[in-house]
Amino acid sequence: MEITLIEPRFCTVEEAEARFTQGIRLFNTNNSVNECNNKILTAYVDRITSTAKDVYIGCTSKEQDSFVPQKLHKMSLIDTNGLP
């Protein structure tokens, strides 16, 4: 039942971009989502770039100061509560 309701609404990427510029899109992988988001973001002419400065609290030595960023870089989005 649900398949017969949803499948006729499928369209190509090109058709979606032309007909539904502000539409909601569903993707089956995070990589596909990232590609779409990056494509939309780079299309804006008046965009603002904001660069974050990371602050690590609780490090007690220079070794920890250099180790923590490397460890965080390798963590998954699940381990960081969705923060890239």
Explain how this protein is built.
With 84 residues, this protein is mainly α. 45% of the residues lie in helices and 0% in strands. The protein contains 4 helices and no strands. The protein is elongated, with a radius of gyration of 20 Å. The mean pLDDT is 86. This is ATP-dependent DNA helicase. It comes from Trichonephila clavipes. Keywords: ATP-binding, Helicase, Hydrolase, Nucleotide-binding.
Termini, distance in Å? 38 Å
- Strands, total number: 0
Radius of gyration: 20 Å
* Overall average residue pLDDT: 86
Fraction in helix: 40-55%
The secondary-structure element order is HHHH
- Total helical elements: 4
The coarse overall form would be elongated
Low-confidence stretches: none
- Major sheet summary line: none
Helix-strand category: mainly alpha
Roughly what fraction of the amino acids lie in strands? under 5%
Structural features:
single chain; 84 residues; mainly alpha; 4 helices; 0% strand; elongated; nucleotide-binding; ATP-dependent DNA helicase
